[in-house]
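During the reporting period the student researcher (J.K.) took over the structure-prediction task from the postdoctoral fellow and processed the backlog of single-chain submissions. One of the processed entries is reproduced below for the supervisory committee.
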Amino acid sequence: MPWLQIKINTTPERSEPYEDLLLSAGCAAVTFEDTEDQPIFEPDLGTTPLWSNTTITGLFAAEHNLEETLKFINQGHDQLFPNLPAPSIRAEILEDKDWEREWMDNYHPMQFGSRLWVCPSWKETPDPSAVNLMLDPGLAFGTGTHPTTALCLEWLDKQTLDNEFVIDYGCGSGILGIAALLLGANKAIGVDIDPQALQATKDNLLRNQLPDDILHVYLPENTPQQPADTLVANILAGPLVQLAPTLSSLIKDNGRLCLSGLLSPQENEIREAYSTWFDLDPIAEKEGWIRVTGTKRS
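J.K. obtained the following structure tokens:
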């Protein structure tokens, strides 16, 4: 069925009262979004900062009485903020869709580098002779559509991984670790804090008809202390800085490191964190995101 959306443009300090008004009016869900494309990068743990201009959306059943709801919201505003002008409010009908099907229909095979393709598991491969990674991410991050994943896949495609041991730290869907195996590595592990990611990684391993004993998955505290030839970590700058000693200990001397999940302004912070152990290469950049790679010194 279609849905009725009511959108309120407001500020962070008024967001919670308006959220309460929408819930009191009978909405099924409330979401917050940025009105003016103002990014918030890696907020502190335990905080949920909002943008200086925030749009709050209340989702109602289509048969909901719009006139009565708008009246209720305006009356609530007058009581809560009697000396302030009423906010900008707009209403629209949201078309009913099978959103999972919509996403599946728009997720297409993608090429990374000269050898590697990432293909949705429900579509045919465009080049059967290529290295084809069949993927269904499930609830985990990592499809190849995000620039940081693409940067890592393009880097892996250029490496000689034959018979190597690879660690995919923050594995998500398992896309990087499985790509490494398909490109020649003979052993990999995936590490993630999310059990759903570990399950998605195992599912995608089988989806690619790879033996289940060449990639094992672990929560971070259970990670084996066996150094790898190559380690890839597509996470965020904050965790990557904190994990620098841990990740460096998981790489052999002369082993390779590939980091992403990083924005251009975060380059110096990452270089400072890893230059103790690694000779770092010039960055690669895509759509404002960067990849930092390097070789561990003996």
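The committee noted the following: The domain at 3-96 is CATH 3.30.70.120 (Alpha-Beta Plaits).
J.K. will present the remaining backlog at the next meeting.
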